[in-house]
Amino acid sequence: MTNRQFKAWRERMFRSRSACAAAFGLDRDAVTAMESGASRAGNDYPVPAHIALACAAWTLGLRGYDGGGVMIGGG
User: Fold this and answer.
1) Considering the domain boundaries, does residue 67 fall inside one?
2) How confident is the model at residue 24 (pLDDT cuts 50, 70, 90)?
3) How many domains does the chain fold into?
């Protein structure tokens, strides 16, 4: 997931960076850095793979995971 894709996803799913940060257990600065691609210090800040996977899970409706089986959809 690119930084631009992350920003577009966050804008679709959350009203604010703070809400996204709270849902993912991050701080707002981390969300801002992932959207811009740079940390406050100016270092590159790519979207980590685990965050991209969390975005996919969130998009599918998964809001938590207890280590057991997951079923998405009806059944």
Assistant:
1) no
2) very high
3) 1
Provide the residue range defining the domain that includes 40. Answer: 3-59
| Mean pLDDT value of segment 28-36 | 97
**Interatomic CA distance for residues 64 and 62, integer angstroms:** 6
Whether pTM > 0.90 for this model: the answer is no
Alpha carbon 27 to chain centroid, angstroms: 12
Q: Does some domain include residue 65?
A: no
In a domain, 44, yes or no: yes
Q: What b-and-e string marks burial along 37-54, b requiring 16 or more CB atoms within 10 Å of the CB?
A: beeeeeeebebeeebbeb
Helix-strand-coil split of the chain, %, nearest 5: 50, 5, 45
- Asked whether residue 11 is domain-assigned, the answer is yes
